[in-house]
Design a protein that fits this description.
Length: 439
């Protein structure tokens, strides 16, 4: 018995939609075409909807272990499923830090027990993320990390970063970098621009990110490692990555939906739901990010989903923690405000949420073709609704997009051939084996 997705729209290589059926058997896409007999299959009518490869998010904070009041692997993966994401990579800045093989294995085990989607752990670069002693990359790789990162803090020592890159290059592991030179931050909580001046807040200058990226690009050139820039936010950073790529240095970069859609001009008063790191920059920076995404300087989009408890976000702009949630709103926001406004094609948006991150991190996912793993997202581009944080599956409700009305909402998410979430039934029960993490 298979799962037959009938009459949905599938995008071809030219970016045009074709209305065909998709037959799934086991954890694979079995056939694409028309006229498949319905006998012995579970049939799902996808009339008027798009059948897409499952979305991939390479930058998510699941908070477990240590911060389960903010998020858990169970709640975070349910949020991912509701947002159409079938594979997510989780960052290591938990408590304890994911800096050893035992910690990585515990993430795999918990994701298998309660996870709704595929979870790919990223191991720390340095022990306890202190920037001092490198972790055992080889041991963590044996239990399934996809990259190393000290996300949340930048590796401040150039010597330690070069050592990490050299070791990662030997193992074929990407180094995923949070770029921030601490000597330039000086306690800032928002972008060092007009908003900070108006409200008397200390600012985070653009150069603290760009200086760090410039240093790392030179180190990546020396070591040959795959160097990936997290949540790029400034025009100077885009320029550096563009020049590095032009010179053949193995650099990739991601951008978040909030940095593409918001600037410091959009922050209302002192609302900490607009406080994230890196901060919302100037409108000129935002335009540079869009341009970088369009010309391929920025490879793909990641949410940097960072849930916090409500009481933490109510501590005021200076004391509240950095970060917002993003898994459940990413696609409708991007579709409504980039695709519908003619800034990005639908094919480009889908590629940057599926095929491109898969290719950059060598994941056997992100495509919809016969024989591929059956990770599928079904989206209704006509469905319009407002963002209400109280409807989130995530424990975090910290979003700056409350009450924004968007089109293009996921209606069903399928992982490894199993329906894990739908608008009609919510989260489905997993098989006894749970979700299998192949990558």
């Amino acid at each position: 018995m298979g799962l037959l997705l009938k009459n949905g729209w599938v995008m071809n290589h030219q970016g045009k939609g074709i209305q065909i059926d998709v037959l799934l058997k086991g954890d694979r896409v079995h056939k694409l075409g028309k006229g498949f007999p319905e006998d012995h299959h579970q049939v799902i009518d996808c009339e008027g909807k798009w059948v897409l490869p499952g979305f991939i998010d390479m930058h998510v904070h699941l908070r477990e272990p240590g911060f389960e009041h903010k998020e858990t692997i169970e709640s975070g993966t349910r949020a991912a499923a509701k947002g159409g994401f079938t594979t997510i990579a989780c960052m290591p800045n938990t408590k304890p830090v994911l800096d050893a093989a035992e910690q990585i294995q515990s993430i795999h085990d918990q994701a298998k027990r309660v996870g709704a989607v595929n979870v790919l752990p990223i191991g720390a670069i340095t022990q306890r993320q202190l920037g001092e002693t490198l972790c055992d990359f080889e041991a963590m790789q044996r239990v399934g990390i996809v990259a190393v990162s000290d996300d949340g803090v930048g590796v401040q020592s150039a010597g330690k970063m070069k050592e990490a890159m050299s070791q990662a290059a030997k193992l074929g592991l990407p180094v995923v970098a949070h770029c921030e030179d601490n000597s330039l931050i000086q306690g800032g909580c928002v972008h060092d621009g007009a908003y900070a001046q108006t409200h008397g807040l200390r600012g985070i200058p653009s150069e603290c990110e760009a200086v760090h990226i410039a240093r790392d690009i030179l180190l990546a050139e020396q070591t040959g490692v795959h160097y990936h820039v997290c949540h790029i936010s400034t025009k100077e950073s885009v320029r550096l990555v563009r020049e590095a790529k032009h010179n053949g240095i193995p650099v990739t970069a991601e951008v978040t939906p909030h940095h593409l859609l918001l600037s410091e001009n959009d922050i209302p008063g002192l609302d900490p739901n607009f406080k994230m790191n890196p901060p919302l920059r100037s409108e000129e920076d935002r335009q540079a990010l869009i341009e970088g995404l369009l010309d391929g300087t920025i490879d793909f989009i990641a949410t940097d989903h960072a849930p916090h408890a409500q009481e933490e976000k109510e501590m005021g702009m200076e004391r509240a923690p950095f970060g917002i949630v993003g898994l459940e709103t990413a696609f409708p926001l991007l579709y409504t405000h980039l695709v519908q406004k003619g800034l990005l094609t639908l094919k480009a948006l889908i590629d940057k949420l599926t095929r491109v991150p898969a290719e950059r991190f060598n994941l056997a996912r992100g495509t919809l073709r016969e024989g591929a793993i059956a990770d599928i997202t079904i989206v209704d581009l006509e469905l319009e609704q407002s963002i209400n944080p109280r409807d989130f599956a995530s424990k975090g409700q910290n979003t700056p997009f409350t009450n924004w009305t968007c089109q293009g909402w996921p209606t069903m998410t399928i992982v490894n051939g199993q329906v894990v979430w739908s608008t009609e039934r919510g989260i489905e029960q997993q098989s006894q084996e749970g979700v299998v993490n192949h990558d």
